[in-house]
Protein: ATP-dependent RNA helicase
Amino acid sequence: MALFRIARYEEQEKSSSAEDQAQVLLRRLRVQAQERQLKKQKQQEAEAETSSPGDVAPGPPGPAQTSLSSPAPEEPKRKAKKRKRGDGSPRRLEKSESETDPMSSQKGTSSPRKPKRKKKKKTGKSCEEQGDKKDSTRACEPSAEASEPQHSVLILGVPDKKALPKVQPFLPKWLAEPSQVQKSVKNDLVPIQDIPGIHPCLQKKLKTNGIMSYFPVQAAVIPALLESASHGFLVGRGGYQPSDICVSAPTGSGKTLSFVIPVIQVLSERVVCHIRALVVLPTKELAQQVSKVFNIYADGTALRIAQITGQKSLAKEQEILVQKTDSGYCSLADIVVATPGRLVDHIDQTPGFSLRQLRFLIIDEADRMIDSMHQSWLPRVVKAVFQGDSAPGSSPLFQRVEPRAITAASTSQPQMPLQKLLFSATLTRNPEKLQELGLYQPRLFSTGPDSQGSVAQPGTEQDGEGKYAFPAGLSHFYVPCTLNSKPLAILHLVRNMKFSRVLCFTNSREVSHRLFLLVKAFGGVPVAEFSSRFGPGQRKMILKQFEQGKIQLLISTDATARGIDVKGVKLVLNYDAPQYIRTYVHRVGRTARAGNTGLAFTLLLRVQEQKFLQMLREARAPELGKHVIRSEHLKSLVPQYEEALSELQKTIRNEWKQKKA
Ligand SMILES: Nc1ncnc2c1ncn2[C@@H]1O[C@H](COP(=O)(O)OP(=O)(O)OP(=O)(O)O)[C@@H](O)[C@H]1O
Structure:
């Protein structure tokens, strides 16, 4: 057995990767203890030497002494060892080793009187033969260390393979401790008359539209908004400025009415028409839907609603926004519902379009709108709101300054606050992203499954925040499929379940188009497609027909995944699995709305299964069932399907020719 081992770099690398962390730690401790013992021993030796110069030098250092980090003391030690071996009396070291070994037991300790070589041999044998663990730990230790001395060696640059603990970003209090909103839109209803401050006419209108009681999110948000506007359009006493409000509640939980009702209530007291509420949404269809709701509840008041989405020409939209009079421009709209691009067009190009009296800025589908911040529509809006007094349309009565520290001077003049209201079923909890909105002392209302701690990992799509609440009435399943059987599975589900309105999502407009052509060629199912292939007018018509039940199966891209509220959609099919949890939440959220039940099926290829199921587990989605379609159920469809396939080929060829021509 070699007493001196040279730790080779490769050996160290191998062993360190194979060794358990605990063992490495243990060895380090042992080495430290040995070093301490050795020091002590040296001292004793020195003392002994001074008393009797003919005595032996201390024995060789333990294997740990071959450390790369402490090469200097190596040489004198070696000399000492040589001397010791020469006279064959390393007893003192033997003893010290057994004493310093933290794993050693008193049982079976070799007699210090026996010569070292003999004793080592003996102990080695006995541990092999007897297999006694305790003894072998102690007695075999030196040889084990001699063969593996590397663990005391510090290798620089070797990557640590330990999985790093997940860093949990620190959340601001308003995000970590939101105002909890009840979840059940069936059980946690609040009678309309129980929320004060809503005009009787508005209450009556709610009832005529089938709203007999408020959903939980409405019961929480409406009073908060009314309270924040209790000083009318101005800031409160002492410069009190209302908090911005963020709402995170499941799809179909009634978020739209939770801002429509208080905004109409507050604005109905206005005297002069100015743009006082601006709703920004990501798509034209959503803007249409929301302005329809505003129109319903503003009916009978003096309030006027304008929609600016690019559906009409800029000039036509300008006509409904501003009017030129002898004394200058005056606004024709109190509430503007807009898409971001068109809004910026009007800020830039419409004379007299003023946001200087804007009181509410409502950002619906807020997480999606944050994604579109690169269009920098928000800074443009804020700039338009807080323009200097010299700007046209400015009123000497009010001073508009961005929120800042309150001073006696700042409160001396009446001010109008701008309150931002954010709504989404998948509101981000990523403080970095939310920061882009410049919120003022925000307050969060949330129904999230675990509002605490579902925190964003910046830079990831799921943001780690991806724990969203799903509608209670939703049952969702995945369907294992092969690539070839996917269209057949869709046909089987649609025909079998016989629902009058089915929404089917794909990941691209090309796939939507082909699937549409295939189902159409197959026959028997009234089908349409919805994507950016069509203009806004056509899309509006398709949605209307779907609402009316004239279309049974609407094959769509994610253009209809968010916010679209079509009553009676009982089934959602994901022909293509969505890539992100947010997309999944919104897609399946087209069903099971307003406390109703709904079904969702996602077709998954075998290669997609694991990742998709993992994504849902991480989102803490309700349990996803497995729905297997047996091949005999599809067999009967095959002959007709093959005919449809050849028809599809012809159609696509013709389309190509037409395109080329
Ligand atoms: N209090 C209520 N009682 C009955 N039905 C309601 C009530 N509030 C809203 N609804 C209905 O619930 C449906 C969903 O409402 P809404 O579109 O506002 O949901 P949402 O939370 O905005 O959903 P999404 O996140 O998908 O946009 C609508 O058809 C609406 O008319």
